[in-house]
Amino acid sequence: MGRMGVAAAMVGVLLFAGVGGAAAAAPPHFTTVSAHTAGVELEVDFVERGLTPGQNYAYVASSTKLIETFQCYRSDTFTPLPHKFRLVTFNTWPDVRGYTANAAGVVKGFVFVDGGVTVPARECRGPNREAVLIHVTYIDFDLSDIFTHAYVSVAGRFSGPVEPD
Question: Taking 80 as the threshold, does the pLDDT of residue 21 lie above it?
Answer without folding.
Answer: no
